[in-house]
From TrEMBL:
Required for the biogenesis of c-type cytochromes. Possible subunit of a heme lyase. Its main location: membrane. This is Heme lyase CcmF/NrfE family subunit. It is a multi-pass membrane protein. InterPro entries: CcmF_C, Cyt_c_assembly, Cyt_c_biogenesis, Cyt_c_biogenesis_CcmF.
């Protein structure tokens, strides 16, 4: 029954998606806009099919219906309920099903949002693009990634999901957050396609999709941070980011999406960078497809790749189609995409955003090259190679420091042109704060050029962001915290926290492996780690646990080894004690020998908690950015023609920018939308 319901759901969603495609195509080709009013019906049917399929899969997992092949291969009677639910996205077919559900959710939300403008050609073409993407993914589910295949002789039990995927509750949230981010970029991509097809390449579609892009970026940010947190608390090596291909696949669209969120402000303000912004949006969406290919095809080795499949060529073909169509449309609309303005001075807000974009895209290229180089080398030379962590660290470190520097100075720059006097006034005390931080670190005994520069730049950027928020709140009260610029400053503070956490934990971690007898202790970086006793337990029906009872500075911690039913080996589960200053990480490597000693890995890392706190602050900043600022007008692009009383680059009450004209007052850029 579950298989039949699920298959019916997939078939319904696929048929509705194809129907949506045909309806929009006929309406546009035959000039019959009235047909577009049928679109919500197709969207509703697609949503009904997707929900039906997901409910059927969850019911099959929870009721242990091993006649469904996916459940037989990934489910287990011994798996607890939360991880039974998350089993759906632990393997290929279920994860594609989740992708389809999220995609249809976005499609329904867009249709509802623009329900009064369905006959608008730009909206129609955007919906067509979304229907095409929906058709592709439900087509995968109807074919090679069918999650509802049945087995003729169902087993009595299944192996359950990979043990690493049923050992931490973050597994229930991290992949859905990533998918909300990945799939969310479909919306701005679809509107970009609509703008190119209709020739309405001004700033109107940017305004319409601003929050969609922001929320997709926010979800992806949270998903990446949660993934790093999961990696830290599960994998047992004491790290959170290994430049793994799957990790890189999530970072790539985040980098291009971040570049877009900055450069789009230049287009809204000045009407420039149209080709660049369209290219960034389309590249971001294409990279989500490439990331799915890397994650789910099994072509690259990864600790995060828990499944292999034959859908790789299809995903690669869809990626190529997206690239070809996008480039073709941009080439076709080349004349209308010419920017009406130009950058007056490199020392300006738009100049800083352009430099920021160069760095972000360079960063993305570095990550992309390091990720796909093994594939290229194998294809060209039939030789397997790998790109190690040192390559990524050497290349990304300088870029990260330069981005911190830009984060510090860009908020202080006015639009069009900045004077030395203005900059010195606005950057004086942030620069002093950054310098003072470096001096204080040196006095405190911190050594090392890279961490000192990172701390100094981080303090510089943090002070600039705080100054901006303080000025905004003094002028506008609580509204000084909301809006794109002010919320963006909160995001910057989160980024600074993460940057400092990365620099500190990567530069000053202390690690040792100790063999300890009961009652014996070891002091690591000022922390006394003592082994008290060892226990074995089968009280948890989902696993057998062997646990070391330990104390860190008198507080109990219990790293363990676990064996799951049908598991071939024991899986370690580290124990972590977070602190504001440093974190103590214990990983049990060996259970007790005949003499009662155990082998434990002890790692003390400074400021690891700052990574997760920084991620939370970025989420808060994203939400604040979604609220309109004081002068935002949702119906009018801010790059309206100059010369109007309300022109965007005119002096603003809340300091959203400074006029470029000579003699215009150079007010502080605070609180711009």
């Amino acid at each position: 029954m579950n298989a039949s319901l699920g298959t019916a759901g997939v078939a319904l969603a696929l048929a509705a998606s194809v129907g949506g495609v045909l309806t929009v195509v006929v309406a546009q080709a035959k000039g019959r806009p009235a047909l577009l009013r049928q679109v919500p019906s197709f969207v509703g049917l697609a949503a009904l099919g997707a929900v039906l399929a997901v409910v059927a899969m969850q019911r099959a997992l929870i009721t242990r219906d091993f006649s469904v092949e996916f459940v037989a291969e990934n489910g287990s009677r011994a798996t607890s309920l939360p991880f039974t639910i998350s089993t759906m996205w632990s393997a290929l077919e279920g994860s594609i099903l989740l992708w389809g559900l999220v995609l249809v959710g976005y499609l329904a939300a867009v249709t509802w949002k623009f329900r009064d403008r369905l006959t608008d050609p730009l909206v129609a073409w955007a919906l067509l693009a979304m229907f095409v993407v929906t058709t592709f993914f439900f087509g995968l589910m109807a074919g090679p990634a069918n999650p509802f295949r049945t087995v003729p002789n169902p087993p009595a039990d299944g192996p359950g999901p990979n043990p690493l995927l049923q050992d931490h509750l973050l597994m229930a949230f991290h992949p859905p957050m990533l998918y909300l981010g990945y799939v969310g970029f479909t919306v701005p991509f679809a509107f970009a396609i609509g703008a190119l097809v209709t020739g309405r390449v001004g700033e109107g579609w940017l305004v319409e999709t601003r929050r969609w892009t922001l929320f997709a970026w926010g979800f992806l940010t949270v998903g990446i941070v949660l993934g790093a947190w999961w990696s830290y608390e599960v994998l047992g090596w004491g790290g959170y980011w290994a430049w793994d291909p799957v990790e890189n696949a999530s970072l790539l669209p985040w980098l291009t999406g971040t570049a877009y969120l900055h450069s789009v402000m230049v287009q809204e303000r000045r009407g420039m960078l149209r080709v660049w912004n369209l290219s960034l949006l389309c590249a971001t969406f294409a990279l989500t497809i490439l990331g799915t290919f890397i994650t789910r095809s099994g072509v690259l080795d990864s600790v995060h790749a828990f499944s292999e499949s034959t859908i790789g060529p299809l995903l690669l073909g869809f990626f190529a189609l997206v690239v070809v169509v996008t480039l073709g449309l941009i080439f076709w609309r080349g004349d209308t995409l010419r920017a009406p303005g130009r950058i007056d001075s490199p020392v300006s807000r738009e100049g800083a955003f352009l430099a920021n974009n160069v760095l972000f895209t360079g960063f993305a290229f570095v990550v992309l090259f390091g990720t796909v180089f093994p594939l290229l080398a194998e294809a060209l030379n039939d030789r397997r190679v790998s790109v190690g962590v040192p390559y990524f660290n050497r290349m990304s470190g300088p870029i990260g420091l330069m981005l911190l520097f830009l984060m510090a100075i860009a908020p202080a720059l006015p639009w069009r042109k900045a004077s030395v006097e203005t900059l010195s006034q606005r950057l004086l005390w942030p620069a002093w704060f950054g310098t003072g931080t470096v001096v204080a670190c040196v006095v405190a005994g911190v050594r090392g050029l890279v961490p000192l520069v990172a701390f100094g730049m981080g303090a510089f950027a943090a002070a600039a962001a705080i100054r901006q928020v303080v000025l905004a709140t003094r002028r506008n009260g609580w509204r000084g915290l909301v809006g794109r610029t002010n919320g963006g400053m909160v995001v910057h503070l989160g980024v600074v926290m993460i940057a400092i956490g990365l620099a500190a934990s990567g530069s000053f971690a202390e690690q040792t492996e100790a063999r300890l007898a009961p009652g014996e202790s070891r002091t690591v970086h000022g922390h006394e780690v003592a082994f008290t006793s060892f226990t074995e337990s089968d009280r948890d029906p989902t696993r057998t646990i062997r646990e070391a009872e330990m104390e860190v500075d008198g507080r109990a911690l219990a790293p363990r080894l676990q064996r799951f039913p049908n598991g071939s080996q024991e899986i370690g589960k580290p124990a972590v004690r977070y602190g504001v200053g440093d974190t103590v990480y214990l990983a049990l490597l060996e259970g007790p020998r005949a003499d009662g000693t155990i082998l434990v890995r002890i790692i003390v890392q400074p400021l690891v908690a700052w990574l997760w706190a920084g991620g939370a602050l970025m989420l808060v900043g994203t939400l604040l950015s979604a609220f309109p600022g004081r002068r935002r007008r949702g119906t009018e692009p801010t790059s309206a023609p100059a010369g109007r009383a309300d022109r965007p680059d005119a002096p603003e009450a809340d300091g959203g920018g400074t006029a470029g004209a000579a003699g215009a007052p150079d007010r502080e850029p605070v609180g711009a939308p």
